[in-house]
Amino acid sequence: MLRRLLVVASIALAAGCGDDPVNPFNRFVTSRPPSAEAVLVYVSSSWTDVPGAPRELLALNADGSKMERLTACAQSEVPCDFVQAAPSPDRNRLIAIRTTPDAAEGASALYFMDLSRSVETIVFPNRKVLSADYSPDASFVIFSAIAAQTTEEDLFYSQPNGQAEENLSQSLTVRERNPRIDPFARTAVFERIDESGVSRIYLYSSTALTSGPAEGPALPGTPYVVGADAGPAFSPDGGSVAFTRLTGTGNGGLGTWDLLTLKGDGVSKPVVIATGPLYRGAPDWGPRGILVVETDAALSRSQLVLMQPDGSGRTVLRTEDASTRMGEPRWLPGS
Fold first, then answer.
1. pTM score, two decimals?
2. What is the rounded CA–CA span in Å between residue 172 and residue 256?
3. Which segments in the chain show pLDDT lower than 70?
4. What is the DSSP string of 230-285?
5. Domains of the chain, residue spans
6. Which CATH number fits domain 25-255: 3.90.180.10, 3.40.50.720, 3.50.50.60, 2.120.10.30?
7. Are the beta carbons of 87 and 330 closer than 8 angstroms?
8. In this structure, are strands 229-234 and 240-248 parallel, antiparallel, or unpaired?
9. CA atoms in the 13 A half-sphere facing the CB of 332
10. Pairing state of beta strands 40-44 and 289-296?
């Protein structure tokens, strides 16, 4: 399905290349691309000492010693708060999910940004987009959003500027969330929550990679129950997946989450590579290893951690107060 959509996207892009191309940008912003030293991006409000400040897009170098602020959205005419960002292969462009400091809980929208030109456009006005990923060949994006006239999330495909949109799942009773595209733009993994209310990791479109019944209570304010799997990400060779599993509802309401890996051979069992009473956010897996943000509510501390696929080599790249809401680390292409 993704391969077919990729062909359609290429045809549509070629057809749009005329003498009077449409400018996809409609707003100037203050931004800059990551430096050549930067290897990853993440969101956080640590750019300021003001409590409760909106999150911006930040970058780090390989040892975490140099933080770069890439956006100044919080101080713009229409302030915003970054929830998540996915870089394009050229490092300068990205898609970002943003909200505003005074928005209703859960309200968010998808933006297409060119950091080097300091311009942006909102991709889907009046659409609640929850998560998104940029294809490794820059030709399309996949995102999870609330479908029209429903209350559940579906997976959607579109070109980065929002054209050629297509609903990939069209399910009324199943929720599809947090898609991630494989390194070869052939398929995707995502969270699937069926009528049982349990979140599992699936390979597009309907192959279950993890399975099992719910093991405990719901985590308040989330769609997850203890035993649920979430936040999948492919390995650089596309042969394995990293994800998190909810193990408890404590830790100040954040829950406790293990980090696991799973080979995609259909035989291997998941392997826990990080455990303990911490919140672990969605990981990202690159040639240097796996990135994950760990939060300890009791210490009000969040740490951006790099580890190897077997759990060894744990390195803390950055430590922040939990109030900064540090999260969503992504390796920059070429890192």
1. 0.92
2. 30
3. 1-26
4. EEEEE-TTSSEEEEEEEEES-TTTT-EEEEEEEETTSSPPPEEEE-SSSEE---EE
5. 25-255
6. 2.120.10.30
7. yes
8. antiparallel
9. 21
10. unpaired
